[in-house]
Amino acid sequence: MALFSEIHEKQNVSEVSSHNREEEYRHAQQAGAEAVLVGRETLATVVHQGKQLENSEAIADDTVYTVDYANRLVRGMTWSGWLANTFSKPVNAPEYRNSNIETNKERTSILKPLKMYEFVPESCEAASQSIQNYHLNLQVFKDCKTDEQKGTCRLICDDMYRQAVLKITEVLTQSERNHNSYINASTKEDNTKDFALQLKEDLSYLRQRQYILQQVFRGVTANNSLNEDTQKTYYLSNGVTAQQELQDQHLNTLSKQIQELGSLAGNISISTEQQAEVVDSLNSKNETLHFQMNVMNRRTEQLIKDKSWGQQKAEFSYYAWIRHNASGRYLSIAPNNDSILNLSNALNEKCIFGVYTRRRVLGLQNKYSRGWVGRNVFGQLTCSANSFNRRQEWEADGDDWSDTTLLVVSGGWGAGGYLLLEKGTQPIIGGYDLATKTQAPKWCISEFHIPSLYHTVTN
Q: What b/e sequence results for 366-392 when a residue is b if at least 16 CB atoms lie within 10 Å of its CB, and e otherwise?
């Protein structure tokens, strides 16, 4: 009787344990299904955002063309602008709808085009070639059709990856030895190490792409696996217990969910990289658009002023010094010639300028010589004008003048000209394009307090 009771108790414990295991399996599978669902929704959202970004880029292309064309029209309304338009190329309509077809194909492809390295150090040639070979074989792997071809190509890719790792490691090791052999490592060794690290980064990127390709292939071939009925027959015919069958089915379900999650993660990674490229392109186009809009505004304001009967009076703001931020030197008139500007190491009376405002433009009058900073009829920088006229109008960036470029409005056929430094010391008027703006020096305009001083100007 006691033996029967003990057996019955063990059976109850076994049933409870089996029930708990089934409950754990069910919770795990439910969590996996929820993760897959979230992944699918995330991928759908990312793809939708990508389409919106591409549409925004197309609109930006149209807007840039419209602004460029309007700029050309406004410039042609003056004799000098008409002459400039005659000897310049017309603005062409954007061809992004056709030219971006190849770009879109590249963005939707898992693998980017083969990367060609320039100026490869001699010690890195073998490693560079091994990475290119690995990349080419990945392209073959991507185009494989049958499972046999995919399996063979995957093995070849794995072997090429190992060979590339060995060659890069060999280059880094040799570079480290050469670095330790000398107290001062040569620039050549530093360049070799930097290039080897770049190769290592590129190889890691390609390896990640191989994993994504393998996950995509698994997702395609998952339906070719044994179905549940076939697996169940196999288990029963081989004497597999119900517990083992339940466990294998659970693992099989989790494996499929993990494979799909891996594929979703790979696709999300590719989509985010594509969106990052579009965002960078949009940022560049928006910056160009903002710059061209300012150019058109300047030209339009000049046309309005030419057609107006009167001119708005300038208002005195304050006295200030103008310092070159990179060198810490001050903009000043030359010691022996009041009409020439240069940079001074010391802040003195020749470095003080009266700042006047007229709408969005500035006027800079030297306190010592009473001359206005601007350009003469030959387009050269000077500080000899007796009044604040069109050639003496300047613009700064926004409201923060502690780190700003300076642009004379009348330069560049009315588009403006940035204040540059020739040979790092001599102020001159340069071009007005976006490339010039990025290279233009930054200046700090700061108020200089002079007690009991009041000054106005009339035109």
A: bbeeebbbbbeeeeebbbbbeebeebb
